[in-house]
Design brief:
By secondary structure, this protein is mainly alpha-helical. It has a single domain, classed as Up-down Bundle (Sodium/glucose cotransporter), CATH 1.20.1730.10. The chain is built from 19 helices and no strands. Helix 3 crosses helix 14. It is globular and about 70 Å long. The model has no long low-confidence stretch (mean pLDDT 83).
Length: 489
C-alpha cells in the first residue's frame, strides 16, 4: 500500500524527471550547453548548485553521524569547510571563470589545465582525466551507498534495490538535461536541504528533557579532542580548490562579476546547513539517550528523527532532503566524469566527432560511469563519510595545488603540473591504503591524508617548474589577460 512517505518520494522523483525534460528542450543544443549550460547560469543557481553538489549525502548522513559519535568535536571539520569554501569563492572562482573563457572556451578542468600552457592535448589533460574518472567513480559510489542506506532504513527496501532506485532517477534527468538539469535540480535540492536541516534539530531539541538528565546531556556539548586530530579535520577545507564538480560551477556562471553575489548566498547557505547537520547529530544523540531506542547506524540519525517526530507526509519530504543531497552530488559527478571521457579523452586522443555524436556519447558515458559506481556501491556498504573522505582527499591533493598555481603563479610549467598531479594522487593513495605502520595500519589512521598530499603536490610543482622551460607566450598572454580583466572588475 502506498503510504505518505513513499508518495512524497514519488512526487519528488517526478519533479526531477520533469526538470530533466525541461532542460533538454532548453539547453542541450551542443556540448557547450550540455556540459556548462552555455555559461549562462545565474548567481543564485550557481551558489546553491555548488553547495548542494558539494554537500551530498554526507551532509544529512555522514556529518550528523560523526557529530552523533563525536559531539562538538566535529565542529573543526565544519569550520575547515566553511573557510575553504570562502577562499575558493574569493580567490579561485573569478580567475577560473575568466581564464576558461579567454583560453578558447575550455569546457572541462583537464582542458583548462592543458590550455594553461597553450596545449590542446598535453599529457596533463590525459592524466587529470584518468584521475577524475577513477576518483569520481568511487565518489559516486559513496552517494549510492547513502541512497541504499536511506531506502533500507526508512522504507525497509533491500539495500541493492535502494541503490538501483537512486541511480536510475539521477541518470534519467542527467542524461536528458545535462548541466542545466543538474543545476536547476541542485537549486531546488539546496532549498529542501536547508529547510530540513533547520526543522529536524529544532523539533528534536524541543523534545529533550533538561531536568532529570541535564548533567548527562551536557556531555554531548563538550570539546575533547587532540590538537592533531582537530587540525586533521580542519584540513578538509583544502580540498575545495581541487573538486571538479564544485569549481566547474564557477566556469558556468553568466558573468564573473556575479560571483560576489553567489559567494554571499553560497556561504550563507553552507553555514546554516552545516550548523543544522551538527545540531542534528548532537541533539539526536541526546534524544536517543533519553529514549529506549537503539540506533544501530549513527549515520541514520536524521532518518530516525524525521520518522519519529513528524507526520508521515512531512517526514516524506524530509527524507526527500536526503535524496536531494545524494542526487545533487551524484548527478554533478556523473556529468563531470562524462565530460572528461568525451572532451578530454575520446575527442582529443581518439576519434573526432561532430556535435550531435558528441552529445550522444556524453549521455552514454553518464550511464556507463553510473553502472560501474553502482556495482561498487553494492559491494561496499561502509561509512559514507569514510568513502567521501578518501575521494575528497584525492581530488584536493591532486588538483587543488595545481588550480591555485595555474591561476596565481606565472612560472608554472607543464612538467611541473604533471609532477604535482601525479605526486598528489600517489601520496594520498599510499597514505590511505598502504599498511606502513608496525601494526599493519595505514598512515591515515594517524592523520588525514589530504594535507600531506597537498604539500607533496605543491613541492613537486615548485621544484619541477623551476627547473623546466617556461610556458608558451600564448599561455602567458591568457594569464595576463585574466588578471587584468578580473582586477578591472
Amino acid at each position: 500500500m502506498l503510504n505518505y512517505e513513499t508518495f512524497s518520494i514519488l512526487l519528488y522523483f517526478t519533479l526531477l524527471i520533469f526538470i530533466g525534460v525541461y532542460a533538454m528542450k532548453k539547453s542541450t543544443a551542443n556540448n557547450n550547453e550540455y556540459l556548462l549550460g552555455g555559461r549562462n547560469v545565474s548567481a543564485k543557481v550557481t551558489a546553491l548548485s555548488a553547495g548542494a553538489s558539494d554537500m551530498s549525502g554526507w551532509m544529512l548522513m555522514g556529518l550528523p553521524g560523526a557529530a552523533y559519535l563525536g559531539g562538538l568535536n566535529s565542529i573543526w571539520l565544519a569550520l575547515g569547510l566553511v573557510i575553504g569554501a570562502y577562499i575558493n569563492y574569493q580567490f579561485v572562482a573569478p580567475k577560473l571563470r575568466v581564464f576558461t573563457e579567454v583560453a578558447n572556451d575550455a569546457l572541462t578542468i583537464p582542458e583548462f589545465f592543458s590550455k594553461r600552457f597553450a596545449l590542446e592535448a598535453g599529457s596533463i589533460r590525459l592524466i587529470s582525466s584518468i584521475i577524475i574518472i577513477c576518483f569520481f567513480t568511487v565518489y559516486t559510489a559513496s552517494g549510492l551507498v547513502a541512497g541504499g542506506k536511506l531506502f533500507q532504513s526508512a522504507f525497509g527496501f533491500d539495500y541493492n534495490l535502494g541503490v538501483i532506485l537512486t541511480v536510475s532517477v539521477v541518470v534519467i534527468y542527467t542524461v536528458l538535461g545535462g548541466f542545466l538539469a543538474v543545476s536547476l535540480s541542485d537549486f531546488i535540492q539546496g532549498v529542501i536541504m536547508l529547510i530540513a536541516l533547520v526543522a529536524v534539530p529544532y523539533v528534536a531539541f524541543g523534545e529533550l528533557n533538561f531536568t532529570e538528565q541535564s548533567l548527562e546531556l551536557s556531555s554531548y556539548f563538550n570539546f575533547d579532542i587532540e590538537l592533531v586530530a582537530a587540525l586533521g579535520l580542519m584540513t578538509w577545507g583544502l580540498g575545495y580548490f581541487g573538486q571538479p564538480h564544485i569549481i566547474v560551477r564557477f566556469m558556468a556562471i553568466n558573468c564573473h562579476t556575479n560571483l560576489g553575489k553567489a559567494k554571499h548566498i553560497g556561504i550563507g547557505w553552507m553555514t546554516i546547513s552545516i550548523i543544522g547537520a551538527l545540531a542534528t547529530g548532537i541533539i539526536g544523540a541526546a534524544y536517543i539517550a533519553q529514549s529506549t531506542t537503539v540506533l544501530n547506524d549513527p549515520e541514520t540519525i536524521f532518518v530516525h528523527l524525521s520518522q519519529t517526530l513528524f507526520h508521515p507526509m512531512i517526514a516524506g519530504w524530509l527524507l526527500a532532503a536526503i535524496l536531494a543531497a545524494i542526487m545533487s552530488t551524484i548527478s554533478s559527478q556523473l556529468l563531470v566524469s562524462s565530460s572528461s571521457l568525451v572532451e578530454d579523452i575520446y575527442k582529443v586522443f581518439g576519434s573526432k566527432q561532430d556535435s550531435k555524436n558528441s552529445l550522444l556519447i556524453s549521455r552514454l558515458c553518464v550511464a556507463l560511469v553510473a553502472i560501474i559506481a553502482s556495482a561498487i556501491a553494492m559491494s561496499n556498504t561502509g561509512s559514507v563519510l569514510k568513502l567521501v573522505a578518501h575521494a575528497w582527499a584525492g581530488f584536493g591533493a591532486a588538483f587543488g595545488p595545481l588550480v591555485l598555481f595555474s591561476l596565481w603563479w606565472k612560472k608554472l610549467t607543464h612538467q611541473g603540473a604533471v609532477a604535482g598531479v601525479t605526486v598528489g594522487a600517489l601520496t594520498v593513495m599510499i597514505w590511505t591504503y598502504v599498511p606502513i605502520l608496525a601494526d599493519g595500519a595505514t598512515l591515515s589512521s594517524l592523520f588525514y591524508e589530504l594535507l600531506p598530499g597537498f604539500l607533496a603536490s605543491s613541492l613537486a610543482i615548485i621544484a619541477v617548474s623551476l627547473t623546466t622551460s617556461a610556458p608558451q607566450s600564448q599561455a602567458l598572454d591568457w594569464f595576463e589577460l585574466t588578471h587584468d580583466k578580473v582586477n578591472a572588475s
